[in-house]
Amino acid sequence: MASSARARPTRSRVPAFAVLHYYLVGYRRTWRAGVFSSFLLPVLTVLGFGLGVGAYIDQGVDGVPYLDWLVPGLIASTALQVALGDSTWPVFSNFQWVKTYYAQSAAPLRVGDILAGHLLYVLFRVLTTIAAFLLVTGLFGALRSPWALATLPVVALLGLAVAAPTFAYSASVSSDSWLAMLFRFGVIPMTLFAGVFFPVESLPEGLRQLAYATPLWHAVDLCRAATLGVAPQWSVAGHLLYLAAWALGGALLARRVFRRTLVV
User: Which positions ≥6 away from 217 have C-beta within 8 Å?
Assistant: First the structure.
């Protein structure tokens, strides 16, 4: 009896962690495929833009060398792209192709457990990518303040702010062509005009207001303040509340869409 009890698989007290474990097991076998897109590509961007283009910008930006000014923007934009990459085709596939969510819902898992476990995996991907990014850019001497470590909770909140509503979007579309359109008309313009590569203040007034409305700009401003050791342009509490509102609203919407699809 004792041996059979020991052989019985244990169940996680937090079901969402069991879902997270499922994705981590898969990631253990596929992590090499994502190294270039999620880590090496941003580092190459640092070398190309920060050192290459930065060599032609004698005065830097606001008296800060361009490499040091650029790195926090790349930290936030990399977190955005990792979060969105894991919230689009993987979510769509779990509904339309491999139907993993349906298998999980047939197990003793609630919709909230399925959603929370997958979001936790997205957070894991964001945090591990940015931690490695910070290490490399620190070796380049591009982090001017120990407050740079504060970028980790910032990008975690940014990851939730973009991943949660994207989960809802990916669960709602009928074709993966809509996912490509999200990157083409949403992610690329946001990355270009949300203060990653140049100050938002140089944009025309209308585009400037659109940039301020994006979650990426709020994360860029916080990350830049942390890595440079200066005050952000907006209040810290205001930035965090704005990102939290995106995360909470997106999570509620995603839960509603997931429930509508999975619960018969």
Answer: 194, 195, 200, 211
